[in-house]
Structure of Magnesium and cobalt transport protein CorA:
Amino acid sequence: MSRNPFRPFIRRNAEAPEPLDLPSPPEPDLTGRNSLVNARLYVRGRCVATAATLEEAFSLMADHPEAFAWFGLYRPGKDEMTRLAQEFRLNPLAVEDTIVAHQRPKLERYEDTLFMVLRAAHYDDGNEQVLFGEVHAFTGERFIVTVRHSESPDLTRLRNDLEAHPQRLEKGSPMVLLRLLDIIVDDYEPVVRGLENDVDEIETEVFSGHAQASRRIHQLSREVIEFQRALRPLRQIIDTLRTDRAFTGLGVRRLQELRDIEDHAIALNERTDSMRDNLQSILQVNQALQTQRQNEEMAAMTQAALQQGETSRRIAAWAGVLFVPSLITGTYGMNFQHMPELGWIWGYPFALLLMLVSGLIMYLLFRSRGWL
């Protein structure tokens, strides 16, 4: 029986592999759920076989030792990742990261395997927010395992594009990794455009006095920061890929493509830096406008209080003018029998004159004080 040349990448020794101590997935797996979306074998860039299960795929790989295999999984569970780890000798730390998910973008090499984590982003026009996804990739000399933890990105278009160009897919897992990085960065462009449009809308809302402007500024700032967390590590990832032994054999043209991806990422990062600075400026302007509006409201309230006080003072002054005549009228209206003025012939004119003079004196007094 001939020796299987694919044996270094497929673990089929008689000795049972050591069990991997891996964490349970964050969400419980459904019983019988198959997370394998697609598993295909390629020879010289053309698909020669498709498998529906991991075991079927491993069997096909044994039958086609010259083939390159591409596994696509969606939110795999512990058992599936353990099976893949045993078959391809994947590093337990990388497998643990894939099961737990929620990892930062990074690229790490574990002996013969590259492990890459990327954060995908999609702009939702309806809700005006950025939705983030996560994709992991394990690559060896003759296999690649892509793991998605969200609906985005849809790797079907990546697979279709590469299958339409067998000369690219013939180069194996490094080419798939390069094209995966390319579509992730390309998908960032509409996200940046959407965020820039939101920043323009925020400026309009701030100067129009929109009540929810501050809340929207903080929400948009968090989205920009989260997007930068996905974007900024790409430069380090690309620098590592450029010198990795898996990419040195791809040729000058592919390295130029990697450089183009890096330039695109740098340009996007500069635009997000500008957006973040603009948001800081808009926040400061919004705070200044809110302070100005509060000052104007306080000035208006103070003016209204002064006017109310002026009116109350005038009312009090007129009440004071009428108080003394009213007191005289009340005094002579008590109708006592023994009042000297009741029998005086000039009593009535004297009372009227007394009321008039007292009222005039009170008027002049309040007038001199500015109350009237």
Q: What stands out?
A: The two ends are 121 Å apart (CA to CA). The domain at 36-291 is CATH 3.30.460.20 (Beta Polymerase; domain 2).
